[in-house]
C-alpha cells in the first residue's frame, strides 16, 4: 500500500504525510527553535548547542530570508497533523556555500525513534525530484552519526564517500559522510512506494 503524501507547489505550504505536515518558520517560532538548538543531545553532531542569539541569526539567515530567495526550498517546521505539536524540522536547501541541494532533519528528543525523520524525508525526496525537478539530492552527516546515516539510506541516498566542505560553518566539523541520490534512480525504486494523491487537498 503506497504511503500517502500531499504535495503543494511549495513544501512550506503544507507538504503532508500520514502523520506530519511542514510549514514555514515565522519569528513566533523562535522559542521552539531556541529550545531544540539548546539540547546537547540534539546538537551532538551539529557543532554543539546554540545560544538564543545564534538561533535568532540562524532563523534569519537560513530560514526567513532564504524562503524568498530560493522559492520552494528551505528549512521548515515539522508538526504533527493531528495535534499541531512541533516535532522538529526538515529541510531541502543548499549545503552551506555549495550549489548542492541537501535533505536534512532535526527532531526533538522526545520524538526520536518514531520514524518521523524518515517519513517526511521520503516525501521531500519525492517533492524535490518531481515538483522541483532536481537531478540530484545530497546529504551530509557526521562520520560517526549512524542513526542519521541509517535514515539517509532508508530514504534512498547512498554514501559516495567522505568530503571536506570549505564553508566556515562546516569546515570545523572536518570530513563528513557525503550521500547522493540521482533523480532517475530514485524515481525508479522509491516513487512507487508513495502516493502523491493519497491525502485530499
Ligand atoms: C537523526 C534523527 C533526526 C533521527 O530521527 P528519528 O525520527 O528518530 O529517525 P527515524 O525513527 O525516522 O529513523 C531512525 C533509524 O535509525 C535506526 N537506529 C536507531 N538507533 C540506532 C543505532 N544506535 N544504530 C543504528 N541504527 C539506529 C532506527 O532503527 C531507524 O532505522 P529503521 O527505520 O531502519 O529501523 C534524530 O535522532 C535527531 O534529530 N538527532 C539530532 C539532530 C541530528 O543529528 N540531525 C541530523 C543531522 S545530519
Which shape, going by the Cα principal axes? Answer: globular
Structural class: alpha+beta
Q: Roughly how much helix do the residues carry, as a percent range?
A: 25-40%
Integer count of domains: 1
CATH superfamily: Gcn5-related N-acetyltransferase (GNAT)
How many β-strand stretches? 9
Instruction: Quote the CATH topology.
Output: Aminopeptidase
Number of helices: 6
Under the CATH scheme, which class? Alpha Beta
Please trace the helix and strand order, writing H or E for each element: EEHHEEEHEHEHEHE
Biggest sheet: strand arrangement: 2-3-4-5
Quaternary class = single chain
CATH architecture heading: 3-Layer(aba) Sandwich
Radius of gyration: 16 Å
List each distinct ligand once: coenzyme A
- Name the average pLDDT: 96
What separation lies between the terminal Cα atoms? 20 Å
Give a quick rundown of the structure.
The chain is an alpha+beta fold and 201 residues long. The chain has helices spanning 30-37, 52-69, 116-130, 146-154, 168-171, 183-189; strands spanning 3-4, 20-24, 74-80, 86-94, 101-107, 136-142, 158-163, 176-182, 194-195.
Amino acid at each position: 500500500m503506497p504511503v500517502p503524501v500531499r504535495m503543494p507547489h511549495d513544501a512550506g505550504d503544507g507538504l503532508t504525510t500520514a502523520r506530519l505536515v511542514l510549514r514555514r518558520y515565522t519569528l513566533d517560532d523562535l522559542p521552539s527553535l531556541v529550545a531544540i538548538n539548546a539540547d546537547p543531545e540534539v546538537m551532538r553532531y551539529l557543532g554543539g548547542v546554540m545560544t538564543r542569539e545564534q538561533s535568532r541569526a540562524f532563523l534569519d539567515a537560513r530560514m526567513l530570508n532564504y524562503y524568498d530567495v530560493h522559492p520552494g526550498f528551505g528549512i521548515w517546521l515539522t508538526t504533527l497533523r493531528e495535534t499541531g505539536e512541533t516535532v522538529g524540522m526538515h529541510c531541502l536547501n543548499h549545503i552551506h556555500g555549495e550549489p548542492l541541494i541537501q535533505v536534512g532533519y532535526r527532531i526533538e528528543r522526545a520524538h526520536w525513534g518514531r520514524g518521523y525523520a524518515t517519513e517526511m524525508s521520503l516525501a521531500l525526496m519525492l517533492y524535490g525530484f518531481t515538483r522541483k525537478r532536481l537531478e540530484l539530492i545530497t546529504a551530509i552527516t557526521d562520520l560517526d552519526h549512524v542513526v542519521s546515516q541509517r535514515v539517509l539510506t532508508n530514504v534512498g541516498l547512498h554514501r559516495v564517500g567522505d568530503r571536506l566542505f570549505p564553508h566556515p560553518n562546516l569546515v570545523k566539523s572536518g570530513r563528513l559522510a557525503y550521500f547522493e541520490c540521482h533523480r532517475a534512480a530514485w524515481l525508479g525504486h522509491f516513487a512507487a512506494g508513495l502516493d502523491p494523491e493519497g491525502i485530499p487537498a
